[in-house]
UniProtKB/TrEMBL annotation:
Organism: Paramagnetospirillum marisnigri
PANTHER family listed in its UniProt record: NEPHROCYSTIN-3 (PTHR45641:SF19), TETRATRICOPEPTIDE REPEAT PROTEIN (AFU_ORTHOLOGUE AFUA_6G03870) (PTHR45641)
Pfam family, one: nSTAND1
Protein name according to UniProt: Novel STAND NTPase 1 domain-containing protein
Domain Novel STAND NTPase: 220-641
Stretches that traverse the bilayer: 696-718
C-alpha cells in the first residue's frame, strides 16, 4: 500500500463553505473569469479548512419567464462580495421589484448587488466587500453617434457611483476603500492577495493541517519538458505574462491581424506560458469578446518532417482542433494543397469546421468560435537546414491568411537570439512587426517563489527547513535561481528530481537530496554523468554519434548549438547507440524525449550544462556547421530543375574537398540526399576543375608576361639609355609604358579591389609596384615617378592599418608625406599635388588619433584642412575638392569632440554637413556623395546626443541608416558599405538603449554583429575588422546585461575579449556579468585589469561608476554594487 498522502487523507469532510459573489456589468467579462480562476486556486490552497465557491450569474440555471436577478443568490447571503467596474453600470432593473437597499431608488443590477451587500455589512459586518475599478482607456467607434452618447452616459454613471459611495459629501475625503487596476495581471494579483487575507482571518491560530492534494498525475514539475494544457493546474508564476499576451492577442485581433510572437531566451518558459497559461485562459468562455468556444492546434515546424504546410494541415485536423474537417471530406493532402496554393480557400475550410464545431457545442446566436494555432519553436524555420526559402515563405503566407481571417488566432514562440532571422522572411517580419511582438523576460523573485511553491502545494508537498538556520529549501532554490536569468530550466529539472527523491511518508523535499544532486547548476550535468558512466564502454563510445544526430550548430564564430529531431529508427535497440538512447530516455535521466518516430533533447540546457555534451559539440563544431550547410544546399539541389541542378553542385576547391572529407568520415550519419549531393558534385567537379586549372594556366602566363614586360621595359629603358642616344626615344617610351602599368595598378586596380575587402589581393598588387620602385628608384627630379612611389606608400600604409600595424602604417605615411611636401614645394600651382599633400596630412593624422595623440592629430588635420580650403576656394565647381573639404571639416570636428569641445566640434561637423548635402542634392545618383552625407549625419548626431538632444540625434542617425541600407542593398559585395551599415545599426541601437527600448537595440546589435561576422569570414587577416567584430560583441553584451540577461551577456563580452584582449569596455562589461551573478571576486579581477587603462576621473565615471548606478537603480545586487563602487573609487 502506498505511503504517500492521498486526497481523502487530508481533506476534512465537514469543511464550511465560503461563497464569493462576483458582481459586475458585462464590460469586464475577462476579469470575471479571472476572479473565478482565483477563487478556484484559493479553494485548492485552503481545501483542508474550507470549500470556497465563486458565485457568478452566468453559472446559475436561468429560466425563461423570470428576471435573471430572481435566480441569483442575494449578495447578503454570501461571505465575500467582489464588485468590478470599468466603463458602464449596466441596465436599470424593474423599479417595482428592485430598489437600492440604501438609496431607495432605481438601480442597475450591479448597484443593487452592491447596496444589498453594503447594507448587510453595516448591520451584521457581513459580507466582506471588495470594490475594484479598471482604469484602462475606454475606446470605441465614433460612427454610431447614439452608441457614443450611450457610452458617455454609462461612464458618467460609473463616476457618480464611485463619488457617491467612496467619497464624503464635499468630496474632500474617502469614506470607503476601493482599488484601481490598469491591467488584468494587476487585478489578479490584487484580488488574490485580498481574498487570501480575508480567508486567513477566518482561520483560528489552532487550525493547522496538511495541505490538500489536488494533483495526482505524477510530478507537478516538468523537468526539462514544457508545460502543456493538461498541466495548467500546476502552472504558476506567470500571471502577468499570460494576461499581457492574452490582451495583446485581443488587440491584434481588433486590428485585423490576430498574430502574436512571444520571444524570449532559451529556457525562459515561452512554450509553457502559451500552452499551459494563455491557451488555458482562452478555453474559458468569454475571455475575449463573444468567443464561447476555442479549439486549438499546436505544432512545431519540425512536425512536418520536411513538409511545413503538411505539418500545419495535420495540426488543423487533429482531435483538439477541427476534426470536423474530416467529415467535410478534407484530409491532410487536400487541406495542405489549399494552404499552399490558395490560403484564402483554406480559410473557407476553417470557417466550415468552426461552424460545425459551434453547432455541436450548441452555441447561441451571438456566441462565436475561434481556432487558436500555436506554432511552438518557430526558430526551427531557420535552424532546420532541410527547409527551403520558398517553403518558409509559403508557410508564413498560410499563417498570415489564417491570422487575418477573423476566425483564427495565431501565437508563435521564438528564441530571442534568433530574432534577426525574421528579416530573412519579409512577410514574417511584417506579420510580427510592432506590437505583435511580446518579450518574455526572466521571472521576478516573487514569480520564482510561485513557480517553486505553488505546484508543490497542489501535490501536497512541503519543503524542508534547516534546523539550525530556519531557512527553507524553497528559499534556497529561489535565491539560487534569482542569480541567473537563464536558470528556469535548471530549476524545473532540480524540482522534478527532488520530487523523485521526496520523503515517502510525508512528501517533504529535503536538503540532503538537493545536495546529492549538486545544487541548481550541477544537477543536469551530475545526473547525466551518473547515468552515462554506469553504461558499458561500447555504449559510451556511441555518445558522439548520438549527440551529432541530435544537435545542429549555427554558422559563424558565434553560431549556437541548438537541438534538432532525429529518427528513432536510426538507433535500433540492439545497438550501442540504441542502448544509450534508451538510458537517456529513462526515468532516472529524462534527458531525451521521444514520440513514436522521433527523438530529441529534452531541453537545450542539456547541451550547455552537461560538460561532456558541451565539449563534444565544441570538438565537432566544424563538422556540424559543414553538415548544416550541405543539408541546406542538398535540399535546394534536389528541388531544382534539371537545367539548374549543375549550377548548384559543389565546385572544386575547399567546398568540395571538405564535403568529401566529411562524407568519408561520417558517411553513415549523413542523410541520403547529402550523400548523393556530395558524390554527384565530386564526379561532376573533376572535369570542371580540370578546365578551371587550364584557364588559370593561361591567365598565369598572361600575368607573367605582363610582369616581365614591366620589368623588361624598365631594364630596357636604362640599358638603352646607356648604349646609345639613338635608342633614347624608345627607352623613354618603354619606361613610360612600364610606369603606366604601375600607375594603373596603384590607382585604378586598387580602387577596383578596395570594395572587395581582401587585404591579400591589395597587398599583392602593391608589392608588385613596390618591387618595381625598389629596382628602379626614381631620380630626385623625376616628379611623376616620385608621386607614383608616394602613392604606393599610401597604399602600403592603408594595408598595414587593416593588418593592425599602426607603427608600420605611420612610417609609410610619413615617407609619402615627405615626398608630397617636396612635390608641392616644387610646383605650388599644381593643384593635384596640393590635393595629394592634403590627403597625406590626413593619413598621418588618422594614425596619431588612433594612437591617442590627439594634439598631434589635430595639427595634421588642420594642415590638411588649410590646403582643402584653398583648393575649394580656387575652384568652387570642383566637386571632388568640395568633398575633400567636407571630409576635412569632419576630421577636425572628430578631434575636437574627443577633446571635449562639443561646441567647436559641432561647428566643424555642420560645415561638413552643409557641403555633403549640397553635393548629394546636386547628384543624387553618386554613391560616394550619399555615403559622405551619411557620415556627416552621424557626426552631427553624435554631438547632439552628447549634448542631450536624443530626439535630434536619433533622427539624424536614422537618416544615415536609411542611406546606408540603400547603398548596401545596391552593392552587397562592397565591404566598406557593409561596414558602414553595421556602424549605423550600432549607432541607432545605442540611442534606443538610452531611451529604454532594449528589444529594439538588441535587434540592431544582432544585425550589426552578423555583418561584421561575415566581413571577418570574408577576410580573416583583416585585423581592423576583427577589432570591429569585438566591438559588436561587446555592444550586444551590454544590451543583454541591461536586459538582465547576464549569462548571455558574458558570452558576448567573452567573445569580444577573445578578439580584442585589451578592450577596456569589454573588460568592464565582462566584470559586470560576474558581479551581477554573485561572483564578486572574479568581477574584481576584471576591474583590476581595466583600471590601469583609465586616464582620469571623468573616464572612470563614464566607464564604470555610471554603470554601477544603473544597476543599483534597477535593484540588481544593490549592496554588492555599492560596495564594489566604493572599492573602484578607492582604487
Amino acid at each position: 500500500m502506498s505511503t504517500s498522502p492521498q486526497a481523502d487523507d487530508v481533506v476534512s469532510t465537514d469543511r464550511p463553505t465560503i461563497r464569493v459573489f462576483i458582481s459586475s456589468p458585462s464590460d469586464v467579462r475577462p476579469e470575471r473569469l479571472i476572479s473565478e480562476r482565483v477563487v478556484q486556486r484559493l479553494d485548492r490552497e485552503f481545501s483542508y479548512h474550507f470549500r470556497i465557491e465563486a458565485m457568478l450569474w452566468e453559472r446559475e440555471p436561468l429560466v425563461a419567464g423570470e428576471h435573471f436577478q430572481d435566480r441569483i443568490v442575494p449578495p447578503h447571503e454570501t461571505d465575500i462580495v467582489v464588485v468590478i467596474l470599468w466603463s458602464r453600470l449596466g441596465m436599470t432593473l424593474p423599479e417595482d421589484k428592485y430598489r437600492g437597499a440604501l438609496s431607495g431608488g432605481a438601480v442597475t443590477g450591479t448597484e443593487w448587488e452592491f447596496e444589498d451587500a453594503l447594507a448587510s455589512y453595516r448591520e451584521l459586518r457581513l459580507p466582506d466587500l471588495l470594490l475594484y475599478r479598471k482604469k484602462t482607456e475606454i475606446t470605441g467607434s465614433l460612427e454610431d453617434e447614439a452608441a457614443v452618447q450611450e457610452r458617455l452616459g454609462q461612464k458618467r454613471q460609473v463616476e457618480e457611483f464611485m463619488t457617491r459611495w467612496t467619497r464624503s459629501a464635499d468630496g474632500s475625503a474617502f469614506t470607503a476603500a476601493s482599488w484601481e487596476f490598469a491591467d488584468a495581471a494587476a487585478f489578479e494579483e490584487q484580488l488574490e492577495n485580498h481574498l487570501r487575507e480575508l480567508i486567513r482571518r477566518r482561520l483560528t491560530s489552532a487550525e493547522q493541517g496538511p495541505a490538500g492534494i489536488r494533483w495526482h498525475q505524477g510530478s507537478p514539475f516538468r523537468g526539462l519538458q514544457s508545460f502543456d494544457l493538461d498541466h495548467a493546474p500546476v502552472f504558476f508564476g506567470r500571471t502577468r505574462a499570460r494576461n499581457e499576451v492574452r490582451e495583446l492577442l485581443a488587440r491584434q485581433a481588433e486590428r485585423g491581424s490576430a498574430f502574436v510572437l512571444v520571444m524570449g531566451a532559451s529556457g525562459s518558459g515561452k512554450s509553457s506560458l502559451v500552452k499551459a497559461g494563455v491557451l488555458a485562459d482562452l478555453k474559458l468562455s468569454g475571455m475575449i469578446g463573444r468567443v464561447a468556444l476555442c479549439r486549438h492546434a499546436i505544432l512545431r515546424p519540425a512536425d512536418g518532417e520536411g513538409d511545413l504546410i503538411g505539418g500545419l494541415a495535420a495540426a488543423l485536423l487533429a482531435p483538439e482542433a477541427l476534426p470536423e474537417l474530416a467529415r467535410l471530406q478534407y484530409d491532410v493532402a487536400s487541406l495542405a494543397d489549399q494552404l499552399r496554393d490558395n490560403p484564402k480557400q483554406a480559410v473557407f475550410a476553417v470557417r466550415q469546421g468552426l461552424a460545425a464545431a459551434g453547432e455541436a457545442a450548441k452555441l447561441t446566436e451571438i456566441a462565436e468560435a475561434r481556432l487558436l494555432v500555436v506554432v511552438d519553436q518557430l526558430e526551427e524555420l531557420f535552424t532546420l537546414d532541410t527547409i527551403t526559402p520558398a517553403e518558409r515563405e509559403g508557410f508564413v503566407a498560410a499563417l498570415a491568411a489564417l491570422a487575418r481571417s477573423g476566425l483564427v488566432w495565431v501565437i508563435a514562440t521564438l528564441r530571442s537570439d534568433l530574432f534577426d532571422r525574421l528579416e530573412t522572411v519579409p512577410a514574417l517580419a511584417e506579420l510580427s512587426a510592432g506590437e505583435a511582438r511580446y518579450l518574455l523576460t526572466a521571472p521576478t523573485d516573487g514569480e520564482l517563489g510561485q513557480i517553486i511553491t505553488r505546484p508543490a502545494r497542489e501535490a501536497g508537498l512541503r519543503f524542508e527547513a534547516d534546523a539550525a538556520s530556519g531557512t527553507s529549501l524553497d528559499d534556497v532554490l529561489r535565491e539560487a535561481a534569482g542569480c541567473d536569468p537563464n536558470a528556469l530550466p535548471l530549476l524545473s529539472y532540480v524540482l522534478d528530481l527532488l520530487w523523485q527523491r521526496r520523503r515517502p511518508e510525508d512528501g517533504v523535499l529535503t536538503f540532503a537530496a538537493y545536495e546529492e544532486l549538486g545544487g541548481l547548476n550541477g544537477a543536469i550535468g551530475r545526473r547525466a554523468e551518473d547515468v552515462f558512466t554506469a553504461l558499458p564502454e561500447d555504449v559510451q563510445a556511441a555518445f558522439p554519434q548520438v549527440l551529432r544526430a541530435l544537435v545542429t550548430v549555427g554558422q559563424g564564430a558565434k553560431g549556437q548549438a541548438t537541438a534538432r529531431m532525429a529518427a528513432r529508427a536510426d538507433f535500433p535497440p540492439n545497438t550501442p547507440a540504441g542502448a544509450l538512447v534508451t538510458a537517456l530516455l529513462g526515468e532516472q535521466a529524462r534527458l531525451l524525449v521521444a514520440d513514436d518516430a522521433r527523438l530529441r533533447v529534452a531541453h537545450e540546457a542539456v547541451l550547455t550544462h552537461w560538460d561532456r555534451a558541451r565539449e563534444q559539440i565544441a570538438e565537432d563544431r566544424s563538422d556540424l556547421q559543414l553538415r548544416a550547410r550541405l543539408e541546406q544546399a542538398a535540399v535546394l539541389w534536389q528541388g531544382a530543375s534539371d537545367a539548374d541542378r549543375p549550377s548548384l553542385l559543389l565546385h572544386p576547391g575547399l567546398p568540395l574537398s571538405e564535403a568529401e572529407d566529411l562524407l568519408q568520415r561520417r558517411h553513415g550519419e549523413l542523410d541520403a540526399v547529402v550523400v548523393d549531393y556530395v558524390t554527384t558534385s565530386g564526379i561532376t567537379a573533376r572535369a570542371v576543375e580540370k578546365r578551371r586549372l587550364n584557364r588559370l594556366r593561361v591567365v598565369a602566363v598572361v600575368f607573367a608576361v605582363l610582369a616581365l614586360a614591366a620589368g623588361a621595359f624598365g631594364w630596357m629603358a636604362l640599358e638603352q639609355k646607356r648604349e646609345a642616344r639613338l635608342q633614347e626615344s624608345k627607352a623613354v617610351a618603354a619606361r613610360a609604358e612600364a610606369e603606366g602599368l604601375i600607375r594603373y595598378m596603384q590607382y585604378d586596380l586598387r580602387d577596383k579591389l578596395a570594395p572587395v575587402g581582401r587585404l591579400d589581393l591589395l597587398d599583392g598588387v602593391n608589392q608588385r609596384a613596390k618591387a618595381y620602385f625598389d629596382r628602379f628608384p626614381p631620380t630626385a627630379t623625376d616628379w611623376d615617378a616620385l608621386r607614383d612611389q608616394a602613392a604606393g606608400q599610401i597604399n602600403s600604409g592603408d594595408i598595414l592599418v587593416g593588418q593592425g600595424d599602426l607603427a608600420g602604417a605611420l612610417a609609410e605615411f610619413r615617407q609619402s608625406l615627405a615626398i608630397f611636401e617636396r612635390l608641392a614645394a616644387h610646383d605650388p600651382a599644381n593643384t593635384e599635388w596640393q590635393s595629394d599633400l592634403s590627403i597625406s596630412h590626413v593619413k598621418v593624422g588618422g594614425i596619431l588619433q588612433a594612437q591617442g595623440d590627439l594634439a598631434g592629430a589635430l595639427v595634421e588635420f588642420r594642415k590638411g584642412l588649410d590646403i582643402a580650403e584653398r583648393l575649394a576656394a580656387h575652384d568652387p565647381a570642383n566637386a571632388q575638392w568640395q568633398r575633400d573639404l567636407s571630409v576635412s571639416y569632419g576630421n577636425v570636428g572628430g578631434i575636437l569632440q574627443a577633446q571635449g569641445d562639443l561646441a567647436g566640434a559641432l561647428v566643424e561637423f555642420r560645415k561638413g554637413l552643409d557641403i555633403a548635402e549640397r553635393l548629394a542634392a546636386h547628384d543624387p545618383a553618386n554613391a560616394q556623395w550619399q555615403r559622405d552625407l551619411s557620415v556627416s549625419y552621424n557626426n552631427v548626431g553624435g554631438i547632439l546626443q552628447a549634448q542631450g538632444d536624443v530626439t535630434g540625434a536619433l533622427a539624424l542617425n536614422r537618416k544615415s541608416l536609411a542611406i546606408r541600407e540603400r547603398l548596401a542593398a545596391r552593392a552587397p559585395a562592397n565591404t566598406q558599405w557593409q561596414l558602414d551599415l553595421s556602424v549605423s545599426y550600432n549607432n541607432v541601437g545605442f540611442i534606443l538603449k538610452y531611451q529604454g527600448d532594449l528589444a529594439g537595440a538588441l535587434a540592431l546589435n544582432r544585425q550589426s554583429l552578423a555583418i561584421r561576422e561575415r566581413l571577418v569570414a570574408h577576410d580573416p587577416a583583416n585585423a581592423q575588422w576583427k577589432s570591429d567584430l569585438g566591438d559588436a560583441h561587446n555592444s550586444l553584451g551590454w544590451t543583454l546585461i541591461l536586459q538582465g540577461n547576464f549569462v548571455e551577456g558574458r558570452m558576448e563580452t567573452g567573445a569580444a575579449l577573445s578578439l580584442v584582449p585589451d578592450s577596456l569596455a569589454s573588460m568592464v562589461n565582462h566584470g559586470h556579468t560576474y558581479l551581477l551573478t554573485g561572483d564578486g571576486a572574479t568581477a574584481r579581477s576584471w576591474y583590476l585589469k581595466a583600471l590601469p587603462k583609465i586616464a582620469n576621473e571623468a573616464e572612470l565615471k563614464s566607464t564604470i561608476i555610471d554603470d554601477f548606478d544603473i544597476f543599483i537603480g534597477k535593484g540588481w545586487k544593490v549592496a554588492e554594487c555599492r560596495q564594489m563602487k566604493d572599492w573602484v573609487v578607492a582604487e
